[in-house]
Design brief:
- α2 crosses α9.
- The two termini are about 30 Å apart.
- The chain contains 13 helices and 23 strands.
- With about 450 residues, the chain is α+β, with helices and mostly antiparallel strands.
- Strands 3-9-10-16-13-12-11 form a 7-stranded mixed sheet, sandwiched between helices.
- It folds into 3 domains: about 260 residues, BirA Bifunctional Protein, domain 2, CATH 3.30.930.10; about 45 residues, Herpes Virus-1, CATH 3.30.40.230; about 100 residues, Anticodon-binding domain (Rossmann fold).
- β19, α10 and β20 form a beta-alpha-beta unit.
- The structure holds glycyl-adenosine-5'-phosphate.
Amino acid sequence: MAEENKMEKIVSLAKRRGFIFPGSEIYGGLSGIYDYGPLGVEFKNNVKQSWREEMFRRKDDIFELDSSILMQRQVWEASGHTSAGFTDPLRECKKCHHRYRADHLEEEGVEKCPNCGGELTEPKKFNLLVETHLGPVKDDSSLTYLRGETTQGIYVNYKNVKIAMAAEIPFGIGQIGKAFRNEITPSHFTYRMREFEQMEQQYFVKPAEADIFFTYWKNERIRWYTDLGVKKERLRFRPHAKDELAHYAKGAEDIEYEFPFGWHEVEGIHNRGDWDLSRHSKFSGEDLSEVDGKTGEKFYPYIIETSAGADRAALMFLADAYSEDKDNKRVVLKLHPKLAPYKAAVFPLLRNRPELVKKARVIFTDLKKTGLNVAWDDRGNIGKRYYAQDEIGTPWCVTVDHQTLEDDTVTVRDRDTMKQERVAAAELGLYFNSKLNV
Ligand code: GAP
């Protein structure tokens, strides 16, 4: 399968099967904005839930937060986002006024406007913060920003969480939430959007321990992706060169994935040094420093940040899972069962046999009561139903047939192997849960 075609196929499947729709589509769309449909919501929630389990359930020293999107404007001044730090280099065509990321043009070796061949302006710094106004008066005093990263809400609440949870460093705070960036060129479907979700975790450490925790978090984070089935050979670390480090970073490495459109970042691991807590102390007047218990010396904790994108991770899981099984003429989304929107689908073998439909309905309802998200399908023939479930990644299909009426067993068909086995209907909840929790 040609890799560029693969992206087109994923975009088409995502829309057709209710994963992802273009934003404001009936008005012609809105660049860099996408909406999640019924299956997409389930799928992305599973991605986020898996991240939450990893951070807050598997570990006991990381606390969850849900801070607001809107904050005082000074937060973004202290963080460096209103100044040169949060900008991308922009070049504009003097003729057709199309705008481009100068670094992207350079990577592609392009000198003239790709749209009309016109002359381009020199690169200038373009700030990515999305502005808004709060309150009834729209003037400079009411100006603030939609958050450009979720992280800043964590620093603003550092002291609150530390006191409320009696936390001692090293400890972490994490959260999932929306972030907004006025990207010059949104691209590659949901890879680069203007409204997106981040899953960020900040680990506060003594400066001398920053390198140890940086390595620890690199390993932890790449394991999360491979545990969820991402192909190892499609993942790699890429350290940032000194001249590409973000304004806050002392060191950074990206986790990159080989998308159909090339190797690109899915997550950043950053050593943010003492930039954030020292700056917020200075700008807010609230002292966010710590005192070393042994030496009595005051210091600002260093921060090791793991910053992942929920949408970007979801796109990566889709791209990694998409496969075409030519022998069996089917498209299969080989999603990890934990991420699949439906864990199972239940079918009556024949839709015109009321006793089968009735029995299948009972099994379907009982299975839903176990907390699993289960689909019902009685359209077309069994082959078509398998095809439809494979395409959305449903790991198991349950068929209720004549034997079910006699011995209360059903067939369970595995998405990847296509093998079938007979399972007692009453055991289905346990059967799926034990497979999900390996
Ligand atoms: N707090 C640090 C930070 O925000 P970043 O490298 O700018 O660092 C972190 O972003 C992650 O957020 C990226 O690895 C990506 O997964 C996601 N992300 C950033 N910009 C995005 C965009 N425009 N669209 C979708 N996801 C984005």
